[in-house]
Structures are given as structure tokens and as C-alpha cells.
Design brief:
The protein is an alpha+beta fold. 19% of the residues lie in helices and 32% in strands. It has 15 helices and 55 strands. The strands form 13 sheets. It has a nine-stranded antiparallel beta sheet. A hairpin with a 4-residue loop joins strand 35 and strand 36. Helix 12 packs parallel to helix 14. The N and C termini lie far apart (72 Å).
Length: 997
Amino acid sequence: MVVYSNSKFPSFKKHQKGHLLSLVVLIAVFCFKCITVSATAAHPVLLAYKVEPFYKYRSDGKPGRVVTLTLKQTRFKGMDTVTIVCNSITETTVFKGTDSLGRLSLLLPAGVGVDRAAKASIAVRSGGIKLSADIRVPAARHWTVFIYPHAHVDIGYTGLQEDVEKIHLRNIDVGIDLAKKTSNYPAGARFIWNTEATWVVKAYLSKATAAQKQAFFEAVKKGWVQIDAGHSNMNTTTCSDEELMRFFKNSNDIEKQTQVPITSMVQMDVPGAAWGLVPAAVQNGVTGFISFPNNYDLRKIWEHKPFYWKGPDGKSKLLFLQAYPYGIGYTIKGNKYGLAILQTYADRYDRVSTPRPMEHFVDAFLFRETARLEQERSPYDYFVMTWSMADNCVIDADLPEAVKQWNETYAYPRLVIAGAREILAAYEKKYGKIIPEYSGDFTEFWTNGLGSDAAHVGMGRHAKENLVQAGTLAALMETVPEVKKADSAWENILLSAEHTWGYQHPGAPLAKVIEKRKASFFSDAEAQSVALLHAFDDPSVTYGSFSVVNTLSWDREGFVTLEKEKSSMGDKVIEVATGKEVPSQRLSTGALLFRSGRIPALASKLYRVVRGASSAQSHLRGTPSTLSNEWIKVKIDTATGNIISVIDRESGYDYVSPAVGLNSYHYLPGVYNGNDSVGRPVSSGAAVLSIKENGPLMVSVLVQSQAPGTHGLTREISLYAGQPFLQIKNTFDKTGTREKEGIHFGFAFHLPGSVSHVDAPWSVIVPEQNQLKGANRNWMTFQRWVDIADDNRGVTWTAIESPLIEWGELSGTILDGARQFSRWKKKLTPSQTLYSWPLNNHWDTNFPLEQSGKMQQQYALLFHREYRSVTAFRFGTEQHRPLLAIPAKENLADSSFVRISNPQVALSLLEKTTDKEGWLMRLRSFSSGTEKAQLIWPNGRPKTIYLCNAEGKMMQTAGPFLTFLPFGIQTLWISSEKQSNKLSDKQQTPDRGEKKK
């Protein structure tokens, strides 16, 4: 159907889409000269020439550069000729003279001006008059331009999430229809449809009729529909390890149905990606990655400069290409229509089709951009771009006809409609030997948007840890997890990490509806994950009997909190197996806190609450301004409420830099001075300190103060018996405002000469050292821990609810997306100060404009000797995956499911397979060196252990020892059947556990 509209687009993602490069300025790609020649009398003759930036087909079928001549004189008569001499080649063109020659287009000899600039002589003869000129031919290569057709998947940005889905599902049918109709077109012009995200394909297959499914499978096999592996356009640096693996689950399922390998992935809109995405992708059969970002200030560092992106293990790698920003289709053509046409699901039209397909096409854009790459001396003759007229839009059915007509008109640049797999294969085939390798984190730029919904981001971080624990618990019980419920929860987690938070017009009434749906992805995931954790609760247990489960792969002890209602029998707790009392404390909230004994890896112990008072004793001391135990002494400033001293009681060393202190409150208001910036930071008001808890297991100080941006701030600082770590709980009642603002909590340590390590998905990052050029250095995200240490001492720090941190200073000062080039850090200097950045509303679109209500941010800090990755990893993981207290009459798991000989290797995933015949187990190393580990089976060695890919496809039998590359991953399939000969204790290698201090 032909669709026309004169309506004007509203701003297309104001934060960056309104700043797409203008096509007004066209870089000169030709020479223009005039030559005055004396004819027979005194009449001057003017000859001008222009070397065009394109090639056309010569009579011999070869490409020739186009030169346009403009000739003006009084009168030419007779047969006229133009002779070109270039590179020892002479070619003459004869044409019939006219009263005015006007403009002539000539083709240079094949090969002239392709790889380098050239010179040519042109002679025009007419009626006895000869005009000649020496011309310069600037280089213009034989460019191949790959066009990736798609409709950008931006879930909820242009309308309700369910309405967005409808457009994308219909686009698959329309794409198949166009591909079928153009299947006989010349190569390059045949239409293909790129679904962009497997979220679209999964939804399509779940709702398609049998006929639609059959047509879809055939289209995929023919290449008419091409599928890339990613779930959606996600903030991958905010993911957990297993969340990144889940990112590819749809792809694996779809591949099984279509029997067509999916080896590429794309990421639209979002600049940057997690380093750990490399090994996760490789584990899932993906070998190439194209980023089509939106405009951001540092994008040109990597644009059109492919590289092999090596993973943290030094072996896994992806062919990575950052292509031109995806919004160019809107700039050239989409904005000539209107959102009501392009982004609305309507029965009366399902595509844009016009009588003039080459109108509003790529001519000026391509000539400008290829000329720029020529000037930059790019070694590649490929240019990669997308074609999407808007976010979540109908298909431009003009594209295949426009490409067909273009390629019939021009020899070069040659246009090719393609998918990511074809594009990457072309690069590898032609340029594989010169493409460089790089390693490091491509730290994302837009993760500051997570601060626009701090409460729900915290729910999501809880949920993803709960889900892994729930799967482990089910595996220990030899029960198949509730797959549908777990899959639904993980889907909500992935949708919460998808880059879209809200409506393109966040002030409109519809925005609140869309934001509420987005928020439900977080809250539903948390509720689902909690329900899965409680699936093994014994409903008949009405008294305080609990099986405390350790879902981690090392022995641990810890603190368990029981709700008041579940611990009303008394204040005393016993370990059932030994009958011995364990230390306990009734808290001011009514909950009961107790300290477990040492619980084996992947096992549990049974505890019971009984009548009587606790007999626990300790060396804890607390006043309103000081806390101390056997390890550390903490001092709190009575005026500000900041922690100004943490002293190691053995050495007397103070870990704190008091100017900023620990847990200091910093509120940054926004100001508008023509260059969107923030104001000066404001601290919290005068503090009121009091003791909250004062028992044998825990003491805590409550710090209450007024704080700008809130109705009040409460900070609880807790210290535990016998433990060298602090826990902090900050609670504030946020006031709602649409004025720009940010809340930051500062942590400044006195550790001169220290090195920082950041736990990220499937990687550990040393800031600056392990970051790619052009990566974000103003802020970054972490997974479970950050460690700052010198050769003698250090601290492992974690935030439970918020993943955002800033290094050295309050550098999250860039408002509204990724503009303001001068404010982006180009290099990070080592620092012992970090800021947690839980909240902001810096964006004008895509994210909520305001947030309010009660919110909580929890932190934990472990003070230790020199940096040891095993100490940091275990502490951080234990804070995010606490011991589980499951109401039970009997102990759930008496002995360890498995033990790992090497403490530098840990379990990431343990799940019972749905066929009940085995377990899927994933292990990761957090060591920077190569490690070997043996699996020890206390209950008997499984008969078969296979090395697998991420989803459990068996590859080869595993040997007695597993080898792990630096930060490496191994996935195993473990059979349920055991060997008859159980290994003796002498054959088993013990777990070399390490103390935390």
C-alpha cells in the first residue's frame, strides 16, 4: 500500500536521536576547476569539470569513475570528441555537437582513482576548437555498503509493551512477503528481514498458526528471515553471570526448532557492552557481534574499525564491529512521515511503499561518509548501516526496489541488503588477516539510567541471585525445578535489563502506564524468585525448626535472621545433630538472629528454636559514636554521621580517609545554564546518633538526619561478633521532583598505592587497565564486589541494591544521555575513593522523570590483608546469596553434593535437568592464571561427566581434572547414575579453604 504523510515527527529520542548527524553539510568528494581558453577570435571559452564520488558501468561492463564536464561557448558544430588520457590509457568518446554542449558525463578508464588519487588529461574537440585540461582524480574506492533492514526493538518506548509486540510480530509476516516477492531480484537487492531480537521471534512462535510457523521455518532456511542471538537490546554490564547466559536461551531454543545455526548477535541503541559477553556468547555458539549504537560522544573511536574482541580468558573471542548509528533511516526518510503512520499498528496499512523508492535515500549520506573514511585512510572498503525508519516501526517496502535501481545506476558504491552473519563473514573473508585483536571491558554509557528507578533495580538484583539459589536448592533435593515458573522469572529479569524504561514522551499520561509495566518486570521477578525459594518449605512445620542450606560451593558459616512469628518458641537456638546451642540474639525488631556453625558446601544443617534465653557472649562494644569487636574499631562523626575511622586492632592501621569518610551522603542538584550540568554537592544535615542493637552477636548505631532530596535519611551501621566486616543499611524517604538530581554515597579509603578490582559478569576488571579505548570512565557497574588493596591491606566492598559506582570523584554529572564530549573522562587515575550512585533522574526521555517513596540501600565492607581473589569473591557472593533457612522437620541435605579441590574455582550454576537423568553444572574461575580443579563426590562419583556448551549439549567426556583458563568457564553434564566404586578419602583432594583474614 502507498502511504504518504506530511505530519512531522516529534523528537526521536530527544536525548540522542535528535542529535543524529545532519546531512546538511556534504563533504566535498570531487574537484571543480575552470579553464579559460582563447578560441579563434577573442571569445573566451569556459570548461569546468567535477569528479563524482561514484562509479557507473562502462560499455565493457567495468566500473568507471564519473566525470561531469560543463562547457559553455558561442557555438559548436559538427562531430565532437572528448579524449581522456590516464595511466598510459587513451580513450576517445565521440558525440554529436549541439549549439550548447551543456553538461556531459564521462567515464574514466577502469581502475583509475580507486586505491589512490590519479591525474588525467581531458581534451575536447568541436568544430576545429580544442579545449584541454589536466584534472586531479581524488581516490574513491569500490565501496560495498551493507544495509541491515530492521525495525528497532525498543520495548515500550513508542507505546504499550503489548502494542509494540504486535508491530514486530506482523513485521515478520510482511518481511517474508517482501522477501518472496523480491526473491528473483539481482543479488544484493533481494529483501531479507532481520528480527533484531529473539524476544520478537519467541513471541511470534508462541502465537503463530501452524501455517505461519511453517512459512517462518522455510523463510529462515532460505535466509529470508535472519535471526540474531541476543534476547533484546540490554544493558549487559548490569547483568549477572547466569543472566548473561540466559541472554542466549531464546536463541538456543529457536535454533533447535529451525535447524539453522545462529552465530551472530546485534546490539542496537546501547553504546558499549560487558567484557564477559564474549565468553558467554562463545559458550552459546556465537562468533560475531555488530553494535549499531545511537549517537554518543565517543562513538567514532571504534566506528567502522572491526576487531577481534578477546575475552577475559585470553582465548574466547568475537569478531566485533561497531557500525554507523542505527537512526540514520529516520534522519533520511522516517521523519518525512509521522509516528502515527510508522509506529501504530493499523489494519489499513502494514508497510510503507511509494512510487518513488529512491526518493529520500542514501545518496548524499553515503558519499559523505565514505569520503570521510577515505580521508581517515580506513583499510576497509565496507560500510555497514541499518535501515529502520523509526523505533518499533512498519517496514519500508521501498528498500529492495531502491537498492535494485541504485545498483542498476551505479557500479559503486554497491548496495547489499544483508544480515549480521553475512556482513561479519564478508569482513572475515576479506580482512581477517589484518583485523586486530583487543581485550577489555567496553564499559556502557547509558547505565546511569538505572538510577531513575532505584527501588525496582534493587528488586531485580535480589531476584537474579534468588533464582540461582532456587535452582541449586532444587538440584540438591534432586527435584526438577519448576521450569515454567523459573523461565518466567528469568524472562522478567531480562526484560528489566532491556534498555527501555518508559515512553518517548515521559510527561504524557501514557508514560505512567508504561513505566508501571516496566517496574512490574522487576517486582514480579522478585516475587517469583522468592516463591521458588520457598517451594521446599514444609507447611506442617509450625514451630521453629529450620534446615539452613548453603547453596555455595565452599564451606561457610554465617548469620541467619528468623522472623518474629517463626521464632516465637524462645530465644535459644540449637544445632539438632549435636544438640549444642549456637549463639543467638533477639533483635529490637522482634526477629531472632543466630550464628550457624560451619555448613558444608552444597549441604545443610538442621537448627531448632527452643525455650530459654541465649547464653551467647562476645567482645562487642558499642556507644552512639563507636563500635568495636575483636578485629576492628569503628568511629562515627557525631556531627555528620559519617564513618571517619576504621582501625585494625592488631596493627593500629586506620583504613579511612576522613575528609569524605565512609557512607557520606552527597546530593547533586541539576542546574540549567545552557549546558545541562549539575550544581555543587550538598551533604546531609546534623546527625542524631543512638544505639539500636546491643547484643552478643551484633551491635549497631542508628544515624538520623535531614538530607536534601528526601524527607529524612536513616543510616544503620552494624558490626558482628568475631567478624572483620561492617554492614550498612541506608533508608530514605525520597521526595518526588522532576528537577535534575542525584544521590551518591561516598566511601574514601586510606590505601595509598592500591589497585582496584571490580567483579563483573564472567570477568574481573582493573579500572583503566582492563577498559577499551572509548569506554565509559565516568561511571561503571559491578556485579557483587569491588576490592581496593595495596600490598599489605585492603577492603572488599559491595552494594546489594545498586550496581552503579563512580571512581575518585562525583563524575556522574552528564545529563540527558551521552552528550557533552568535554565531560567524558578519557583516562582513570588510580583512586582509593568510590561513590555508590543509587539514584538520579538525569534523563529527559526513556526513563522516569521522577521517583519517590521509601528506599533502602545496603552495603558491606570486609577489611583484610593483601588482595586475594578468593577472599573477595567469597565475601561478595556470600553477601548476595545468604544462607537459606527452610522450615523443615528433617535436614534437607546432610552432605555436600560435590566439592571442588581448588578454592579459585566456584560453582556458578547447578540445576537438575528436566529429563531427571542428570544435572547441569557450570563452574567459573576467578583467578587471573590458569587453574586445575578436581571434583570430589562425597556420595559417590557419577558414572559419566561430559564437557558441554552453555545449554548442556555434550561435547566430550571430562577427565579427572578440569583446566580453567584465566577467569574461565566450564559447563558440565553430570549423570544421575553413580559408579559402584566410591573414591576413598585418600583419593580425594581436600578443599583448600582460606580464612578471610
